[in-house]
Q: What sequence folds into this?
């Protein structure tokens, strides 16, 4: 541990009585994890571990400190729930006392792959696997070149808030962001995604307000002609898969900022869902799961060290984190030019959205604010039929500001550059709803996106969808013509019209809570 880190820990109120492991190399962290019996190696060389009780984020237990800075800027409500400075201070003291009594893993990394907006992040964790996750997901820079810490993340994953009810908290675990002092507390949960998404939430507050940078929950890649494409989508819509294309270089798979002229990655790694992962369908991700990568909540095939990506017994949310350079096709700079194409991915389980359609600026606002996908039976407890899911800007859970602030920033960029084309892509069901139709082939979706990027969809013109007003291409190379108009794929055209009108009504109702003016037709 360097004197600087020792001084920083002491300034935080952490006075370790045990060892402090600072900036350990991954190989040494792997040894620590195996020796502590917290993880085991897979046959690919990746380290596999379980996060315990929590295999996903806990949005009901996430809070922001309400103070003079945030009182009028944060969009308070169901997503951004307030706590007082006094409660934060009380929990902060408990966390620092707890961390003082155990071995610590400390790492200094960077968020934002852009010199003008780089943010130095210091993480203090109690598990070697958590430290590997930080190493994989953030940008690693020379310690000697690092500047003053901007954000601090304290992870006390085994600490419980025993008197949570008396303190007015819903559970004994919580995640609390103090955006003024730029400190994040993660208490009682070992799910590593909380670290990543807490910093993302902080950037979603800091960058738009201070630098007028549009922050986005999206993937990004760039082609040989330096053309950037963005991929927005909720979990299960194919964001990570579709942005990993052999013909294009990946900028990042999840979190980006858009300046006046550039798009840049917030992260240094990828955090991919691995359920159903195969080499055949996602070769780049499959090959990236090697020594240095981290598997979360993935079982082994019986009697082997072979990861079983079809075994959902721990969770559907099984994950792999790995440095972005583990992929073959990567843009090494971490940024690219402003986008030429933007894709909104929606897994429509009702089977009514076209496989691809062109959006006007007004429609882009409408679908961006709605952030639609659908849950189907088996993906979540209690879900038996297709259920519409809306998440503003495709990332409502991480937006401290009002969603319309991000949407207005997007609208301004689209108006400033009319050559940017926005597309709505259905990666879900065709020829009927879930249970009747089938999910569109990944190969078809890839081809549609490639054709859109290469401007091959406009040759035969477009026809307008009678319910949604979307512009559907009449032809696409390598795609069956009937597939482009979803109604033609249904055996019951009247049933299609009924389902399409039902879904459009859900869109309008959801949109109205953000903009009381009549929804876009």
A:
């Amino acid at each position: 541990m360097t004197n600087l880190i020792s001084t920083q820990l002491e300034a935080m109120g952490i006075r370790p009585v045990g060892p402090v492991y600072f900036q350990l190399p991954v190989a040494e962290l792997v040894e620590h994890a195996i020796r502590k019996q917290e993880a085991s190696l897979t046959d690919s060389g990746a380290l596999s571990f379980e996060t315990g009780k929590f295999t996903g984020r806990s949005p009901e237990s996430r809070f922001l400190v309400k103070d003079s800075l945030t009182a009028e800027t944060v969009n308070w409500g169901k997503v951004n729930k307030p706590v007082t400075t006094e409660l934060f201070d009380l929990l902060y003291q408990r966390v620092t006392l707890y961390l003082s009594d155990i071995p610590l893993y400390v790492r200094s990394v960077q968020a934002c792959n852009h010199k003008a907006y780089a943010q130095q992040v210091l993480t203090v964790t109690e598990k070697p696997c958590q430290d590997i996750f930080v190493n994989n997901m953030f940008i690693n820079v020379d310690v000697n070149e690092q500047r003053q810490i901007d954000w601090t993340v304290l992870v006390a994953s085994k600490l419980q808030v025993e008197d949570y009810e008396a303190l007015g908290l819903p559970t004994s675990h919580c995640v609390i962001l103090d955006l003024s002092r730029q400190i994040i507390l993660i208490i009682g949960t070992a799910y590593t995604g909380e670290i990543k998404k807490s910093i993302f939430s902080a950037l979603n507050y800091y960058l738009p307000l201070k630098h007028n940078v549009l922050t986005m929950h999206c993937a990004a890649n760039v082609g040989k002609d330096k053309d950037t494409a963005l991929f927005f989508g909720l979990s299960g819509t194919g964001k990570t898969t579709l942005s990993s294309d052999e013909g294009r270089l990946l900028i990042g798979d999840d979190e980006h900022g858009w300046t006046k002229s550039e798009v840049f990655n917030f992260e240094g790694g990828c955090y991919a869902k691995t359920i159903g992962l195969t080499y055949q369908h996602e070769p780049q991700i499959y090959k990236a799961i090697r020594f240095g990568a981290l598997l979360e909540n993935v079982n082994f095939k019986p009697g082997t060290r072979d990861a079983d990506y079809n075994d959902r017994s721990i969770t559907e949310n099984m994950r792999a984190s790995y440095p972005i350079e583990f992929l073959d096709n990567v843009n090494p700079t971490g940024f690219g030019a402003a986008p030429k194409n933007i894709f909104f991915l929606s897994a429509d389980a009702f089977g009514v959205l076209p496989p691809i359609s062109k959006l006007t600026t007004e429609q882009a606002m409408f679908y961006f604010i709605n952030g639609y996908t659908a849950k189907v039976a088996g993906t979540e407890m209690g879900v038996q039929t297709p259920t519409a899911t809306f998440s503003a800007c495709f990332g409502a859970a991480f937006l401290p500001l009002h969603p319309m602030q991000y949407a207005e920033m997007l609208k301004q960029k689209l108006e400033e550059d009319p050559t940017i084309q926005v597309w709505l892509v259905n990666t879900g069901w065709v020829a009927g709803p879930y249970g009747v139709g089938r999910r569109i082939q990944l190969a078809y979706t890839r081809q549609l996106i490639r054709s859109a990027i290469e401007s091959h969809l406009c040759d035969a013109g477009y026809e307008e969808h009678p319910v949604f007003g979307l512009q559907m291409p009449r032809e696409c190379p390598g795609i069956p013509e009937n597939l482009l108009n979803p109604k033609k794929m249904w055996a019951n055209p009247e049933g299609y019209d009924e389902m399409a009108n039902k879904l459009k009504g859900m869109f309008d109702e959801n949109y109205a809570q953000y903009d009381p003016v009549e929804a876009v037709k």
Observations:
- The longest helix spans residues 493-512.
- The first strand starts at residue 20 and ends at 22.
- The CA atoms of residues 150 and 199 lie 11 Å apart.
- Confidence is low (pLDDT under 50) at residues 377-383.
